[in-house]
Amino acid sequence: MPDKPSVDGLEQVWGPQWEQDGTYRFDRDAAGDRSAVYSIDTPPPTASGSLHIGHVFSYTHTDLKARFERMRGKHVFYPMGWDDNGLPTERRVQNYYGVRCDPSLPYDPDFTPPFEGGDGKSSKAADQLPISRRNFIELCDQLTVQDEQQFEELFRTLGLSVDWTQSYRTIDATSRASAQRAFLRNLERGEAYQADAPTLWDVTFRTAVAQAELEDKEMPGAYHGLAFHKSDGSGDVVIQTTRPELLPACVALVAHPDDERFQDLFGTTVRSPLFDVEVPVLAHHLAQKDKGAGIAMICTFGDTTDVVWWRELQLPNRSVIGFDGRIRSEEPAWIESEQGRALYAEMAGKTVFSAKKVVVDALTESGELVGDVKTINHPVKFFEKGDKPLEIVSTRQWYVVNGARDEQLRSTLLERGEQIAFHPDFMKVRYDNWVGGLSGDWLISRQRFFGVPIPVWYPLDADGNPVFDQPIVPTEAQLPVDPSSDPAPGYDESQRGVAGGFQGELDVMDTWATSSLTPQLAGKWETDPALYDLVYPYDVRPQAQDIIRTWLFTTVLRSQLEADVVPWRNASISGFIVDPDRKKMSKSKGNVVTPLSILEAHGADAVRYWAASSKLGTDAAFDPQNPKQIKVGRRLAIKVLNAAKFVYGFELPTGAHQVTEALDVDMLAALGSVVDQATAAFDGYDHARALEVTERFFWTFCDDYLELVKERAYGTAPDASHETQASAVLALRGAIDVLLRLLAPFLPYATEEVWAWTHETSVHRASWPTRADLPVDQAETGLLAAVGQALIGIRGAKTAAKASQKTPVTRAVLQTPAGVRQLVERAAVDLAAVGRIQDLSFVDGDDFAVVEIELAEQPSA
Length: 861
What we know:
Layout: H1 10-21, H2 28-31, E1 37-39, H3 53-71, E2 75-77, E3 81-82, H4 87-97, E4 99-101, E5 129-131, H5 133-158, E6 168-169, H6 173-188, E7 192-202, E8 207-208, E9 214-230, E10 236-241, E11 250-255, E12 269-271, E13 278-283, E14 295-299, H7 304-312, H8 338-347, H9 352-366, E15 369-383, E16 391-400, H10 407-418, E17 421-423, H11 428-436, E18 442-443, E19 445-446, E20 457-459, E21 502-504, E22 508-509, H12 511-515, H13 518-522, H14 529-535, E23 538-544, H15 548-563, E24 568-574, E25 577-578, H16 595-602, H17 604-612, E26 620-621, H18 628-648, H19 662-683, H20 687-714, H21 722-743, H22 748-758, H23 783-800, E27 809-817, H24 821-825, H25 828-835, E28 837-845, E29 849-855
Parallel strand pairs: 1-2, 3-6, 4-5, 11-13, 17-24, 23-24, 25-26, 27-28
Antiparallel strand pairs: 7-8, 7-16, 9-10, 9-12, 9-15, 11-14, 12-13, 16-18, 19-22, 20-21, 27-29
Enzyme class: ligase
EC number: 6.1.1.9
Keywords: Ligase
């Protein structure tokens, strides 16, 4: 034991030792079968930028459970993945190196980026150097590997008991092959398909966006009254719209079938203002009687409701917005009037905002703008990573069925949700609501560069046109493939883009299409069947609450389509970290705290204690300027070192001795109750409760019990014998042994340091304590708690007398509640010793109090 134990530097001592000893290594041979394994589908953090304090918070929660299960005797499969592909990585590479991808450029094997370590100054495309797709992907790979090394170092410092030999990347060859294999099987079973359909489109990133990636933002807008003219000349129909620039894309007017105001209009036609295009007036139940004028124009496409109406009412597609978010230049064939064509020519090429002004000015001039323009704030859909409103354009995309259009599959997915235990259980409603509210199949294709390529090619007909409904696919043995650079099976590269040849699919898969396969990626699906059978289905998926609709749902979906089972038995859902104003921390808000400085300042155990103090599913506030809870955790870790050093200062008695004294017996019995409560809490995924009961007892043990029995343990208490001394030492040793194991998941460094003073093996490979580990076999009587209250009274009396706690007491009378006196009297010797009381007596009363005290005379100085 060191003379002065310290928590400082323990991370540098024990981290390398754990790695050298393989303390957290998954031993598949020793595991034998699935029943002996506890497997974790660990979230792979996005390897772009830096980790934040929220990662420390949620990943600690997972580690607590992993350490508990390992001590319970399970062989814990605890891998770490890195989520490399996707938009965040591309953005980071663009800014870091000052480049952008241009697929038309040839590969430069000697390319060197303009600079490294960009701070965002190159975020504008005009400032970035265009490079080939292959060069761009190489930079993505290079930068993500650097980020992953930094992430791993931080996670190691935090003390995550991950088996680092089980790491994987979502973009490496193995992961690409797995994702492409799953896609090909979806395609073969008819679960994957392509369609030319309205698609939510981000004009900044130039990519399609799936339903799960949407978020609503309140934006200013304005209602404009537009006069449509009845085709029979009998008058006008006024509608209200926030998007007058879509007037040339109007295909119908729609009202609720029960709205009496429009019964005579249903089945007739009207002509649009300015453009004079005839459109029908139709009925549909999604029209809202109390919104706007109660009758709306259907445009292709202003919002997702337009898409529903277009599909269900079988309307024509008259899209006018291009992939760049501007009005298309091609003159629409359906606009026949000279006035309409002239106005459209004025709109062509403009942004939607500029086009809106053109239309509103024209409506004002023509008199077809009715009433005042009414300003409003309304929710507008954005890509969660974008900063411009989404448009809806028509594109050819790849989809995977998800139950939105298949009631049987939807019902099955809801049943799978019932088979997963959510922790906390109220999080399950988010899954149910998402499945119940799906409005379209899962759009998985993305018009990006750094991702898993969709593994298909298309034959070109005699005119050089692609035949999309006859895709060419590789065999599973040929995976992974990149159709943009690999020739199609049965062709050679010279036939690319040539009539009678082929063209490769350029789109990549949505990042969730790979992340939804993390159980398969970590378990080496199809490449190591023995390992896969040992870990799948997994025991738990830990994750954040905001990606239940994406990561959790899509993983359940892929597991259902491929294996007809749930991917895991439990889902543990962490809350968010919020700033002192209770706002969620995020990079966009500028309130993110990086964890490395916190770990360096306070130590990993202290930070883990803070994280462990919060239950699953609850948000935790964090103030880096005053991290109170972290300071409490550091104090606890230091107390563990000092208390253990004090206990280990007493040598174990020789000979056959037992715990015989009532106070010792009751302390151990109370500890047995703590063991039961902590175990039940961990079994129920309530680590915060396990910490709470353990910590509360630990401080009682230190503040009360140690003080009460130390004189007896030293053999200096009045009437002390070898047997009573041995009882105290055995109880102290037994308690600290159990407490170290109870605290080990929370404070892995401090407990390992102490354990090493008296053991050859790691505390993290020791068995989780049970009542059988305690040298007593009886129920708790409440003696320790009662004597603790009595001790408070004695200390208070000395303080009131302005005397030192070391001041001897000639005589004291202690009042105790009725029925407790006989209990407390059983520890009278220890109470008298700690209070230095020569004559201690007791009387009955309402509560604990010292009713008489006579301090010994102190010798004059």
